[in-house]
Amino acid sequence: MANRSSLISDVDLRSPENNSAHHTREIDGKRLIVRRGQPFSITVQSNGSLPPKHHLDLVLHLGKRDEVEIKVQKERGAGDKWWFNQQGAQDEMLLTLHSPADAIIGRYSLAVLLMSPDGRILEKKDKMSFHLLYNPWCKDDVVYLPDETQLQEYIMNEDGIIYMGTWEYIKSTHWNYGQFEDYVMDICFEVLNNSNDALRNSQMDIEQRFDPVYVSRIIAAMVNSNDDRGVLTGRWTEPYSDGVAPYQWTGSVPILRQWSKAGVRAVKYGQCWVFAAVACTVLRCLGIPTRLITNFSSAHDVDGNLSIDFLLDENLQPLESRGGRDSSWNFHCWVESWMRRDDLPKGNDGWQVLDPTPQELSNGVFRCGPCPVTAIKEGNLGVKYDAPFVFAEVNADIIHWIVQRNGQRRKIRVDHATVGRNISTKSVYGDFRDDVTLHYKYPEGSKKEREVYEKAGRRVTDVPSESSEPGRLQLSIKHAKPVFGTDFDVIIEVKNEGDQDAHVQLTMLAMAVTYSSLHRGNCQRQTTTVMVPAHKAQQEVLRLRYDDYAQCVSDDHLIRVKAFVEAPGENEPLLTVTDIPLSRPEVFIQVPGKAFVCEQVKASISFTNPLPVPLKGGVFTLEGAGLLSSTKIHVSGDISPGQTVSIVVSFSPMRTGVRKLLVDFDSDRLKDVKGVTTVVVRKKYRNIFPEITECY
Q1: CATH class for the region spanning 148-456
Q2: Which of 280, 353, 519, 623 has a 20 to 30 Å separation from 644 between CA atoms?
Q3: DSSP class of residue 266?
Q4: Which residues are annotated as a binding site?
């Protein structure tokens, strides 16, 4: 309570009104959270009018030790200064604070001072604080995004869709970003405070946080834990027994909370989509418009020659130890953040690639970006940051070589067009896919594409012309959409376009791989001699049985099939490769009736075992922004083939709006089975009380 003799009796930060005006009501209704470049008001209660020639001063501090001090001017000055104006009656004064559009983001301590005519501090009210975020609604902020539909998606939407699989068979999985869940904002600033830059020089780090380029670069480094106190440890192969397998996560919030609760100790484990999703959560929370991107057939070009070289032995087995660290992933996820790049020449504003997956060093730290998407499309590889690496991810060639017994290499396949296919993101208009490939590259084979390649240093002669003649023999692989747990056939077709019959040796190999192309073991191999009549096609069948592939298939459920043909009279052998994703069942969810905030609802969840073997150690994981925190429910006993297991879960929604309930099921033999349903949470009305929109 205030001293009876004090003139200032109370300060009201007017959090509900300010937060609503600043689009931060979803983060917190009690604490003051505002956005830069937009005014907000506080009320100072006093025991009477101020004495003549006395006035109020406002002082702000940033940092744990108040490293940065800002004295708020009493009148409007230059655009880069804080200032306030004052309106008041006898015992109440309304102070409106104006922050510059490039103000430092962070937690501010606020002191209200009563000053004497000679400049002495007579009273001080200082146990107050607020948070300041970037403001994409403010035209003068470098993260300004003029489209309200995009703002609702890239700042306000807590639910997302991540695209995975292969470029031919794209699948989607839902993700809970949860950027407005309890204490997530605090953890986001905790992430910034634990960066190497912050630990080396806290004041210098804080003073740089006005710049979203700087902050996003810090986040890209801090989401992985390779060289700092980062959030996630990456792991691309089993075992995951000392942590959580990457495919089990359905949202960012449990990861961030676990990292903070454990004393900023890295959480195990993540892969590219998990790294990207956590970065998306943090950046949206801080106020930088951000979306998650999937690049299918994504190249990892270590040596910068725009070529991914795969070495095979004469049995078509990968020689991983001799092929360097180049690789091609079925898909790779990063994020794009929207900002104006005042540090670069004109033409580089807009979406910027940020990649927190630890692949290569950037200025000595595992991170990538921000890199303008426009620079990638135009081949401007001298632009900051990491443009050559990103360019290769969407443009590199893939070359297959056979290493013969004498050590000589034989080039058997050059693929100019596979890398960088169907680059995807969630649409702002609903739960469907937007293809953004043409944001990154010109149409395949176009004149403009050739000009970009020339500028980027890729030899134009390497790009095949439209008039190039196909060979006499054509090789292709066909298959249906197989379901994990079933036997299925793969059809290899050899087509003879020549005028003479062809006698060929056909080798067919099926192997289990991860989405990042790590070889997990062979499933089936078959070699046969085939006679293909002139102007005809001959088909061979490779039968893949569950009992064979179940022993080696990875958690990504991918089978890679290679077909290799050698024939007398052909200058070069033929090789074709395809990746076959094995589809999994779904978890079914029902939430009957209407859902109201703070009132209990029930969700019925069921899953049927499609495999011919029992499942052990079954566990459901549920979560949903505004619905419930991450919850695990273990299934007792084995789940027999064909058996349906059902559970009922009760929870009380915490916030109104259209919400997503996400469920993941995992067991010993079947993992990464997902389900999602939409829950519309309505306001609750009382006869004598105002409407209730969230629980506290």
Answers
A1: alpha beta
A2: 623
A3: P
A4: 395, 397, 444, 449
